[in-house]
């Protein structure tokens, strides 16, 4: 039960905040200024509750005064848990309500179901909201399209091909990205994103299927901008010596790939269905089985302190 309580605590507080919480009492003793007695008492109680697995009580004792005072002493990467996403349209005003519910011990589903917050933490512990895809459509730039039989290829600014008003408003910087769109009855569904050249490529038999591929790549763009856990490719595991079947399994478990495939799944859901089911509830792979090769702290959160990922042992 200790491991399960530890896992719940890490999820509830976020993996980075949990580690900070364990050391917070010692940190607050070093903080400058007066009037810190209550904060130190709260942090001490919070640490005790967290160690016992009482994460609701731990959060309640973690006063915002202590957090604000401790920010300068914590690594900057941990601030993401408090600041949330960087979208222009992110409902920051709803975060206090969500955190209040969280502090009261409300489960993540209850927070999402509440009309006011409708927020949830992603796999990295950061607050996220959801942009509606109801207006999203994919189209060719017919003036610049090159036709070869039934095959159509065109290059255009990202939002000329991938018309998504909600995404464009949330991340206007993506207007500087370009898109390569190829459709034709013999094309296989394929997408890729080149972050160096700022180019999104989508191939599909038709524009309907291109929409499904496109939303996957757009989700990768969001995660890249937000510095969320990334996706990847099976080849990166094959190069590490894994057989193809295992490499593909590991690739599917990458947090960024789970999120992008979930975006594809939720693309077919109505706004009413989305409101009833949070993004986490429709992820196909449980959070404790998702992996992030780029963050050592994730390995510690998933496998224990100082653990080495099993498939990297001996490599």
Task: Characterize the structure shown.
It is a single chain. With 315 residues, this protein is of the alpha+beta class. It has 3 domains: 2-128, no CATH class; 132-218, no CATH class; 229-315, no CATH class. It is built from 16 helices and 9 strands. The strands form 3 sheets. Strands 4-5-7-9-8 form a 5-stranded mixed sheet. The two termini are 32 Å apart.
N/C terminus separation = 32 Å
Order of helices and strands: HHHHHHHHEEEEEHEHEEEHHHHHH
Order of strands in the sheet with most strands: 4-5-7-9-8
When the domains are counted, the total is 3
Average pLDDT confidence is 74
What is the helical fraction, as a range of percent?
Answer: 40-55%
Quaternary structure: single chain
Kindly name the structural category. Answer: alpha+beta
What is the CA-based Rg, rounded? 22 Å
Low-confidence stretches: 1-44, 49-84, 310-315
Report the sheet-strand fraction: 5-15%
How many strands, what sense, and barrel or not for the largest sheet? 5 strands, mixed
Shape: globular
Number of contiguous helices: 16
The overall strand count is: 9
């Amino acid at each position: 039960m200790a491991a399960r309580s530890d896992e719940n605590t890490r999820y509830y507080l976020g993996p980075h905040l949990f580690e900070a919480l364990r050391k917070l009492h010692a940190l607050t003793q070093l903080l400058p200024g007066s009037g810190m007695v209550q904060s130190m008492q709260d942090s001490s109680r919070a640490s005790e509750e967290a160690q016992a697995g009482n994460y609701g009580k731990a959060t309640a004792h973690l006063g915002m005064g202590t957090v604000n005072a401790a920010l300068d002493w914590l690594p900057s990467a941990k601030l993401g848990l408090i600041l949330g996403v960087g979208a222009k349209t992110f409902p920051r005003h709803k975060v206090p309500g969500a955190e209040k519910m969280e502090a009261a011990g409300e489960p993540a589903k209850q927070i999402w179901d509440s009309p006011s917050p409708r927020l949830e933490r992603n796999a990295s512990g950061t607050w996220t909201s959801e942009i509606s895809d109801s207006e999203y459509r994919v189209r060719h730039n017919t003036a610049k399209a090159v036709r070869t039989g039934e095959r159509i290829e065109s290059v255009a600014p990202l939002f000329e091909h991938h018309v998504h008003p909600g995404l464009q408003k949330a991340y206007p910087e993506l207007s500087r990205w370009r898109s390569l769109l190829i459709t034709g009855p013999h094309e296989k569904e394929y997408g890729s994103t080149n972050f160096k050249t700022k180019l999104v490529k989508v191939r599909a038999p038709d524009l309907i299927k291109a929409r499904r591929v496109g939303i996957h790549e757009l989700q990768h763009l969001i995660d890249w901008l937000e510095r969320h856990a990334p996706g990847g490719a099976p080849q990166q595991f094959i190069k590490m010596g894994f057989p193809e079947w295992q490499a593909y399994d590991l690739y599917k478990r990458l947090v960024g790939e789970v999120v992008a495939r979930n975006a594809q799944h939720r693309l077919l859901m109505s706004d009413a269905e989305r409101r009833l089911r949070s993004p986490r509830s429709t992820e196909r792979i449980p959070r404790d089985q998702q992996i992030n090769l780029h963050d050592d702290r994730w390995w510690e959160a998933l496998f224990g302190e100082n653990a080495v990922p099993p498939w990297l042992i001996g490599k």
